[in-house]
Amino acid sequence: MKKRIVVGATGASGLPLLIKCLEIIRENPEYESGLIMSPSAELTLKQETTWTPEEVKKLADHVFNPEEIGAKPASGSFKAEGMLIVPCSMKTIAGIHSGYADNLILRAADVTIKEQRTLVLAARETPLSGIHLRNLYELSMLPGVRIIPPMMTFYHKPETIDDMTYHIAAKLLEPFGIEAKEYRRWNGL
């Protein structure tokens, strides 16, 4: 049986990261992805890329409707390595923090936390308000929750935006045990 990763996408900026994460998961035959894209993510996708939502959904092994609150990822009995939300809006962070699970992305995150599975949040906002920071801090204290804002790095000497996107996507997937082929780790000075 393949290792499952539930992948949520919300309307924050950063949809190219979602595409790259899905591509990297697909390159790893022992893993499969289940995608939940919010309507806001689909709108932002059109602003940030030339991809259609249908093209992105083809990168996933399974696709779930965000309004399908009774779908498999809504239950703790659905076996998964965990969940990645990329990008993750502050609205979604607030919903996860408060336990307000009114759609499948929030419910799947809630289940991931209660089952103490890995939950990776690619939190996207700038500047961060005190409310954002409080929500992020309190979520970071929960077992298995990783806050990984998509921060640019330069030690790997990226030459293109795609190089930076790949590097960040690899960092987002690392907590699930996925080793991206072209990921360059820090090797010291």
TrEMBL record:
Flavin prenyltransferase that catalyzes the synthesis of the prenylated FMN cofactor (prenyl-FMN) for 4-hydroxy-3-polyprenylbenzoic acid decarboxylase UbiD. The prenyltransferase is metal-independent and links a dimethylallyl moiety from dimethylallyl monophosphate (DMAP) to the flavin N5 and C6 atoms of FMN. Residues 3-173 form the Flavoprotein domain. The keyword Lipid metabolism does not apply. FMN binds at G11, A12, S13, S38, S89, M90, K91, T92, R124. It catalyses: dimethylallyl phosphate + FMNH2 = prenylated FMNH2 + phosphate. It is an enzyme of class 2 (transferase). Keywords: Flavoprotein, FMN, Prenyltransferase, Transferase. Its EC number is 2.5.1.129. SUPFAM superfamilies: Homo-oligomeric flavin-containing Cys decarboxylases, HFCD (SSF52507). Belongs to the UbiX/PAD1 family. The keyword Ligase does not apply. Dimethylallyl phosphate binds at Y155, K171. This is Flavin prenyltransferase UbiX.
